[in-house]
Amino acid sequence: MNTYTDFILKHLKALLSIDSPTGYTKGVTDYLIKEYKALGYEPEKTVKGGVLVDLGGKDEKNAVFLEAHVDTLGAMVREIKGNGRLALTPLGGMNANNAEGENCRIITRSGKVYEGTCQLCNASVHVNGKYDETQRTFDTVEVLPDEKINTKETPKALGIMTGDIVAFDPRTTHYTKRIYQEPFPGRQIKCSHSPWLCRLFKRRAILLQNVNSIQHFTVYEEVGHGGAASIPEGVTEVLSVDMGCVGDGLECKEYQVSICAKDSGGPYTYEVVSNLIEAAKKANLDFAVDVYPHYGSDAEAALRAGYDVRHGLIGVGVYASHGYERSHVDGMKNAFLLLKSYLG
């Protein structure tokens, strides 16, 4: 298993280093396509910008569609203010409380990238007498580019404009077993379901003998419609590999794989959830079954789009979702082994 773990961590770090806020994902999908081609597969890019990879296997009339998203949370410039600082609009469910104090990159349409910091407006404690009582929203925080700016015209001269993407530094840190990442991006998804999965199936002879499996890396999950398209003919089941929630009222821990029975959109297919539980028990895995109160997935988006499929959701245990996220290597192991047991 150490070989698997090393490979997972190698590609996890590579994926996390690529900025991919919703709407700006070409870099990360190009990386996926390159890696899959190197392994001998034939990945395809969808019109929407996602990546499809057919892993093969039997029973093409009852294929399992494995979905994971590689888009992350981030922001977009909504206004260049009179003082040259940048007002933001969030991409996905990004929270201004977690954005404050973070380093970021402003990606211009011309391809130039400028560094900056997201701060509370009037952020000096020695000046702002209402620092503590100010609610953090995207009306009260702003981005300060590192360039010398003091007027609205300065950032415009640099090529910065409304609509530019703002990507936040994930601050990925690996402490022996635990992996920290901030801010929030569905970055944890990248550790749940990335090229290592395909490679391990291929290189380690973990072949999908009984099930035809197709991978779909989506790029609009954070805004709700990532899984709402591109499902090929013959797919009868959609399994979303996302994050497992860790928090009050839930069983899942960071070192476990979570099986979701219900989220904010309703229950997942009873038979799929039951089969996932049986597969986890059969493989003697450390797992939890939970109900997520504030959650939606690519699999759920597929049903809302009208696809006639069964659906399920699993994920690596992640604490502080959309904040300074914290995961455990054992959680990734358990998620991988659950997929192996379930699909094999």
Automatic annotation (TrEMBL):
Co-factor binding details: Binds 2 divalent metal cations per subunit.
Active site: 221
Cofactor(s) needed for function: a divalent metal cation
Residues that hold Zn(2+) 2 according to the record: 222
Transmembrane segment boundaries: none
UniProt keyword terms in alphabetical order: Aminopeptidase, Hydrolase, Metal-binding, Protease
Protein family according to the UniProt entry: Belongs to the peptidase M42 family.
Name of this chain's protein: Peptidase M42
